[in-house]
Write a structure and sequence with these properties.
379 residues, alpha+beta, Cytidine Deaminase, domain 2, 2 domains, seven-stranded mixed β-sheet, 17 helices, 7 strands, 11% strand, elongated, DUF4192, DUF4192 domain-containing protein
Length: 379
């Protein structure tokens, strides 16, 4: 989901050095399929699956066809398959590894032609089947991948690689006392929501407006702590935000604030008490700025502030009950083109709340390999 990077297929070392930076983490027990576009073999889409999914006797061939279809839509002319196995290039005699390769090669035969296969292990890397003697016995040492042109460029650009896929979406819990303070505010604000629903239109609109105001305050505080009054405190705002995001109208209003140029649309959308926003058409246009290639805009600089606040909500919030904040974090990661982080966050959201509609929608988008609108428009 990121702009293509020019790499020559004759340099597998550079390609292997690039894959973890592209994914955002070091793969393990994985199959990664890399799209190569155009005569210069520009790296396009990079997709990863657990190797176990590709090896599944009943479903492995279907998984391979789905991966190849993503690359075909990406405009790939060739593809490279990278297997991440503990035994590394020594897997040449490993029947399961060859079964995974066979699934991919069969799926890619018509649209892409022959697929080159590389293997990365715990101690070395090389070709799966080195017929021309290009790799020494046991492969080449992994340290070779630490001194590449691609790696140097990624470091200079400040791109980091997480040790594992789970670390991509890891959010460290806040200290216990801070979490207890937020929990007390969350409890009071949730009780206020129940009272507001019972009281009627004006009270509910005021509660929703207060939830959105807490969000606006925390985003402003994240950008410049000195520009925001000390009261309400950050912990008080986090408790109100956490409770507010449970209300779909509040959550959607927060989503609208992600989009530049929407002004006070988020506040206007909270008028009334029905299940749908008061300004449904305008909300649709705001969401289109994220997903629709015809109207899409890239994420603005404030995206980092929004992510920072949502991460604080998760860090201070009730464990196992963070589906709204995790889903919004996943949406922002997807909008930036970080599909790996988006998938991890959405997966966590669905663990917390299996039926969360927005998380399910985003999961389907990720499974289909769809890039955000601005990436598809500029491709």
């Amino acid at each position: 989901m990121e702009p293509a990077t020019t790499l020559r297929i004759a340099e597998p070392r550079e390609l292997l050095a690039y894959v973890p930076y592209r994914l955002g983490f070091v793969p393990a027990r994985s199959a990664v399929l890399v799209s190569l576009r155009g005569p210069r073999h520009e790296v396009g889409l990079v997709v990863r699956v657990d190797l176990a999914d590709l090896l599944d006797p009943a479903d492995g061939a279907r998984v391979a066809r789905a991966l190849v279809s993503h690359l075909d839509r990406d405009g790939a002319r060739r593809a490279v398959l990278v297997l991440y196995l503990p035994q590394g290039p020594g897997a040449a005699a490993d029947a399961p590894a060859h079964r995974a390769v066979a699934h991919v090669r069969q799926a890619a035969d018509v649209p892409l032609g022959p697929v080159d296969v590389l293997v990365v292990g715990d101690e070395g890397y090389g070709c799966l089947a080195c017929d021309d003697g290009c790799c020494p016995p046991g492969g080449r040492p992994l340290r070779d991948l630490q001194s590449t042109a691609v790696g140097a460029r990624m470091v200079l650009e400040g791109v980091a690689v997480a040790p594992s896929r789970a670390d991509v979406g890891r959010i460290t819990p806040a200290p216990a006392e801070a979490r207890r303070s937020v929990a007390r505010v969350r409890g009071r604000w949730s009780a206020a929501a129940r009272d507001a629903h019972a009281a009627g239109t004006e009270d509910l609109a005021a509660w929703r407006a207060g939830s959105l105001a807490a969000w606006r305050t925390e985003v402003a505080r994240a950008g410049d702590p000195t520009a925001v009054p000390a009261r309400p405190t950050g912990l008080a705002c986090l408790g109100r935000i956490e409770a507010g995001l449970v209300d779909r109208r509040v959550r959607d209003a927060v989503l609208v604030t992600f989009v530049p140029g929407t002004g006070r649309l988020a506040e206007r959308s909270l008028a009334g008490t029905g299940p749908e926003p008061a300004d449904d058409a305008a909300i649709g246009q705001a969401v289109a700025a994220v997903v629709d290639p015809a109207r899409a805009v890239p994420p603005p600089p404030t995206t980092g502030l929004h992510e920072a606040v949502l991460e604080r909500v998760v860090a201070h919030g009730a464990r196992g009950a963070q589906a709204p904040a995790l889903t919004l974090l996943g949406l922002l990661a997807w909008w930036r083109g970080d599909g790996a982080r988006a998938a991890v966050l959405v997966g966590r959201a669905l663990e917390d709340e299996p039926g969360h509609r927005l998380a399910l929608l985003l999961e389907g988008t990720l499974d289909a390999g769809l890039a955000p609108g601005w990436v598809r428009r500029d491709a």
